[in-house]
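Researcher: For the annotation table, I need structure tokens for Peptidase S1 domain-containing protein. Please keep the output clean. Sequence:
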Amino acid sequence: PGELNPRITNGVPAKLGQFPWQVAIMVDSSALCGGSLISDQWILTAAHCLKSGTNFGVVLGSLIYYDYETSVLTSTKIVHPGYNGTTHQHDLGLLKLPQAVTFTDTIQALSLPSTTQPADSFDGDQGIVAGWGTTSDTSLEASEYLLYVEVPVLEHSECVHIYGSSIVTDQIICTQSTNGESTCSGDSGGPLVIVDSEGTPTQIGLVSFGAKGLCAEYPTGYTNVAASLAWILQNTGL
């Protein structure tokens, strides 16, 4: 399916405080990525967003990605040592904020999975993903406002059939585009969230790749957060 490059298409505008863990990351004042606040000082995002960057502007608690009033600058990054840009394996990394943020109605940490789980354990779950990425396959401009879509988690075996077993390993979760709703470029690093029966949101993935120019048709690939839980906890001390 061509170059792999993810963004939100046909999304719904988010309400302030609806996704209080969602952050926008400006990489060296040029590239835009998403991420999630997983504690009062740590951001989880994609390795490919951090790999070549030096300075990161993190926008917290806002619907607008260029909301400089809420932006925090950091250069403290940790990229997963197993990251492979060709196969998208271990596409995750961490940013540490210079000081702890204060939680409010619009700034909250997102829960991680409690245990390591294989990718196929999420098959059929309903996921939610948000971002500021370009809004269609033909658009070059990022969305000014935070958008979200609800996407079903695709059966792991079906995603292997589409992208191949060298890419879709146990490190990868896929979601299926429905009604043209999907993720596309600029949403990289943003969290894939499921909500349990008690209404508790948990991050199961983060946006890693999609089919460039075909993101409303092909599945989106996410780093399986549960597969890298030990690495995240070890590096953050959470």
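Researcher: And a one-line annotation?
Model: DSSP finds three helices and 14 strands in the chain.
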